[in-house]
Amino acid sequence: MPEKNGEKKDAQDATVSGASVTECPFSSSKDPYYNEYLEVHKLIALGNLATDKHDEQLFITIHQAYELWFKQVLIELKSVVDMFIDAKTGKPRKIDDNSGEMVLIVSRLGRIVEIWKVLVAQVDILETMTPMDFLEFRKGLGSASGFQSRQFRIIEAMMGLTPAGRYKSTDAVDRGGSDYYKRVGVKEGGFNEEDRKAIDEIEIGANLRHGVIAWLDRFAGSFGFTEQKYKELWTAYLGEYVQSLPERDRDNLSEKFSANFLADEKKDRGSAEFTIAARRAALIISLLRDYPVLRAPFQVMLRLIDIDEYMAIWRFRHLNMAVRMIGKRSGTGGHSATYLEGAVRENRVFPELLELPTYLLDTSSVNKVIEPYKSILENEFCLQKNG
Ligand code: HEM
């Protein structure tokens, strides 16, 4: 399985005194020693203190801890992307929705969510520093900023955040166009050539969003509905849906529903855009989540929403922390809190999944709508509910 290979490679990249960590450290001829295995001496020696001010070490430690966790997020993320998309061909893989692989995807995504919760909690530690404590050593940072975190940008790109999909504030874009977040050759907030290239490479490659869209797209095909039958089903659904809405939402939301679930597929759609089929599959999975075959896919969708949410919560905590430390001043990377606010609001990877609750119906209405199609759902795809 590709994730296993990925794990092996990641493990092989990390070496302990030259020995591969895929060998059990406790059975090798050399008796493993805790500090060597973890290279603790190297780890704690890292960082370039610019001053002798007390809080500067906290500032360095916290950033280093973030970068270590970013490394782990990338390992998990890459393994999940590799399960959705074949790394060699760049083509979507066919995952059995009832398989251990689905369960592995759920558990790896779940691990990313838990790491992200730790990243959010770490903000509390940094907030024990006061703005005056920060000013004591801030000059020494020059133009270095978390804005230049290569791993953070790669996480965003591997999730599927595109240059076009990002928030663009005038204070950022005026100084770099749509590439403002990875400019080269500028002092404030810029990247060096090597980092910029690494981010570019991930941006043009397969990402989680592509993988999820392709998976949902294929999933929709597996319900055994003809396009005609699908249209019938969704038209019936729309009828119930409109009835369920308050008067003030009816025109607007029924129009949106039709555009999202009843329209014909666009021919010139890019791979980063949700197809109508993918939207329908996501809605069906949410509505019929209790059927055994749909349980794991539903968990996948929940974890994707969690990651988007916890990344946004981190952005929000970081924004508040930044304002608390520097008020209305520009950051060392040359951007203001306005930029950070926009990123909180708009830098989401799966807005289509977040929008799904808009279109849900209660269970009895769903049952009424699917009644005529139950035999297709149950016979062809073994969707019998337990119990
Ligand atoms: C005193 C603490 C901090 C302050 C005042 C602060 C402030 C800022 C500001 C103002 C920006 C906008 C770019 C700029 O002008 O620099 C920024 C961006 C950023 N910072 Fe921090 N930051 C702090 C700590 C951290 C920590 C601990 C991390 C952890 C990695 C971090 C990661 C980031 C990231 C990833 C961005 C880019 C966000 C985006 O583009 O959406 N920052 N920070």
Structural description of this entry:
It is a single chain. By secondary structure, the chain is mostly helical. It is globular and about 75 Å long. The chain has helices at 2-13, 34-37, 40-45, 56-84, 100-126, 131-138, 150-159, 170-173, 193-204, 208-221, 227-244, 247-262, 276-287, 292-326, 337-346, 351-354, 363-370, 374-381, and strands at residues 15-16, 19-20. Strands 1-2 form a two-stranded antiparallel sheet. The protein has a domain at 59-219 and 267-355: Methane Monooxygenase Hydroxylase, Chain G, domain 1 (Up-down Bundle). Helix 4 runs parallel beside helix 7, helix 7 (150-159) packs parallel to helix 9 and helix 10 crosses helix 13 (276-287). The structure holds protoporphyrin IX containing FE. Protoporphyrin IX containing FE binds at residues 62-63, 66, 126, 134, 145-147, 149, 152, 181, 189, 315, 318, 322, 325-326, 330-335, 339-340, 343.
Could you state the order of secondary-structure elements as H and E? HEEHHHHHHHHHHHHHHHHH
| Second rung of CATH, namely the architecture of the domain at 59-219 and 267-355 | Up-down Bundle
Main β-sheet description: 2 strands, antiparallel
What oligomerization state is this entry in?
single chain
Average of pLDDT: 87
Radius of gyration computed on alpha carbons = 24 Å
Low-confidence stretches: 1-19
Spatial separation of the terminal alpha carbons:
33 Å
Query: How many E strands?
Result: 2
Fraction in beta strands: under 5%
- List bound small molecules: protoporphyrin IX containing FE
Helix-strand category: mainly alpha
Question: Could you please say which CATH topology of the domain at 59-219 and 267-355 applies here?
Answer: Methane Monooxygenase Hydroxylase, Chain G, domain 1
> Order of strands side by side in the largest beta sheet?
1-2
Task: Name the overall outline.
Answer: globular
Write down the CATH class of the domain at 59-219 and 267-355. Mainly Alpha
Work out the helicity level. 55-70%
Query: How many DSSP helices?
Result: 18
